[in-house]
Amino acid sequence: MKRYWKLIILTAAVILILGLFYTKTGTANDNGPSFTIKKIQGNEEEISNILLDANYHQSRTAGSGHSLQISAEGTKYFNEQSIAEQLFGFGWDRQIERWQKEYRSYMRGKWPSLSSFFENGKFLAYADVNYNFTGPIGSSRDFTFDIDILHKETGGRVKRETEVPNRNQYYSMSVENVQVTDNVLKVFTSNQVEHQGNHEIEIHVYTFDIQTGELLDDKIIIEEKESLDANQWAEIMILNKHEHIGEEEYVLAKVLNVEHVQDAENSGDYVEQVQQLYFVSYNVETGEIKQFEIPEIKPFAAAGISPIPDKAQISGSTVYFAIFTTDGIDVYSYSLETNSLQGSQKVPLEKSFSDSPVIKVAHERIYIVEWINKRDTDKSIIVADVESGEIVYSGRIELQEPEAHSGEYELYIHDIIFN
After folding, report:
1. Which of 51, 176, 339, 419 could cross-link to 238 by cystine, CB 3.0-4.6 Å?
2. Rounded Cα–Cα distance for residues 259 and 275 (Å)
3. Residues with Cβ within 8 Å of residue 180, at least 6 apart in sequence
4. How many degrees, rounded to 5, is the angle at CA 193 between CA 192 and CA 199?
5. Residue 87 backbone dihedrals phi, psi, to 5 degrees
6. How far is residue 330's CA from residue 161's CA, in Å, rounded to a whole number?
7. 281's torsion region: left (phi>0), alpha (psi -120 to 50) or beta?
């Protein structure tokens, strides 16, 4: 028996951890009131798939904030979530849990990041980057790809670990998007390279054979070619949504170069000034790369009004950009096939909305949510069609039991999550 005591303790610990992982960590009694989204007009189906990430404060009680999620079904506070939800995000289990139920063996040991997955009728594919330090912490790392492709019809799997080409020159790597086309797996990554004391970003696409998992090609889509001064910085990122795990025609990235300059008109304070803003599209099927600018949105970027990344959506070969203005939301549609502006629409906003609502573009819709809501807030949420600008839903966030909570409150909306 003594020979097995370590195994018994380890097994008991695993059972305890798994139990805690899927159990709730609090009760509703520990939290504030419940909220719901009440329709003013339109189709309630328009908000059936959204969660509002929020923080609740009682105005009369300093420091009494509670993190919560609000949906059409009601409220869920942070300490009512499972440990899994707290660790990986509230919406993590919508896709991940479905795969865990349908493909239990395949999903074992995989990090639950949607950007690492691809799914269509034939394949469920996963790509991640593992690394080991090859020296002191903060020095170069040894990166390897973890590729796992499930053929749904046969149940067969192609699982392979492959060294990342030139892996020792990278400081960090992350998988941003995974696609399958023409019997190849394409993995899009953001690679951080240390150069002359600066960390520079490269966007790569690695191509793997779908039948063998063999690495066929490594192509750089974007790289920083010019060194930046101490008062300059660059932001390079892929704009495709992580929650979209199916086929896409294009992968789109933006490159934003910003400089801190002294504003002579405002007491010499330093402000951020956009020096360059352009986009790079990658055709998933053909591999064609195009670099382009959109003159219509450059003035907004120069004024510090960013239409990206949450305010952009790629639908087929069209990308939509949403920009907040003084009289509403301007939505621009741009063709990635012809590299031309297709048109623009305006979504009008009532004066009750503040000058900084939460805006997201997804599912051919633009979602606009007032970032601070109080008891007397008239309208909290608007959903509009990105092509026509037509408002298809409007509603407000309100208490479910207002008579039980007579005091004033403030509800801060941080993000819109799609489940």
Report:
1. 176
2. 7
3. 118, 120, 122, 123, 125, 186, 210, 247
4. 80
5. -75, -45
6. 46
7. beta
* Phi, psi values for residue 116, rounded to 5°: -90, 0
Residue 4 has pLDDT above 90, yes or no: no
> What is the C-alpha separation between 70 and 10, in angstroms, rounded?
39
Higher pLDDT: 373 or 354? It is: 373
Alpha helices, DSSP H only, in 228-368? 298-302
Phi, psi of 124 (to 5 degrees): -125, 115
Tens of pLDDT, residue by residue over 397-408, are: 888 877 777 778
d(CA 281, CA 337): 10
8-state DSSP, 394: E
Which residue is it, tokens 């018994």?
A: 8
Q: How many residues does the chain have?
A: 419
Q: Which is more confident, 217 or 139?
A: 217
- pTM exceeds 0.90 for this model: no
What letter represents residue 226's amino acid?
E
CA distance 116 to 175: 6
pLDDT of residue 19: 52
Phi-psi region at 407: left, alpha or beta (left = phi > 0; alpha = psi -120 to 50) = beta
- Rounded distance, CA 178 to CA 123, Å? 12
For residue 283, CA distances in Å to 201, 219, 286, 312, 336 come to 21, 13, 6, 18, 9
Other Cβ atoms less than 10 A from the Cβ of 404: the count is 9
d(CA 196, CA 160) in angstroms, rounded, equals 34
Hey, which of 38-52, 205-219, 346-360 has the most confident mean pLDDT?
205-219
Query: What is the model's pLDDT at position 2?
Result: 38
Element (H, E) at 8: helix 5-21
Give the pLDDT band of residue 235 (cuts 50, 70, 90).
Answer: confident
DSSP β-ladder status, 340-348 and 365-369: unpaired
Q: In Å, how far are 232, 258, 260, 264 from 270, measured between CA atoms?
A: 12, 12, 6, 9
pLDDT computed for residue 325 by the predictor:
80
Pairing label, strands 66-71, 198-209: unpaired
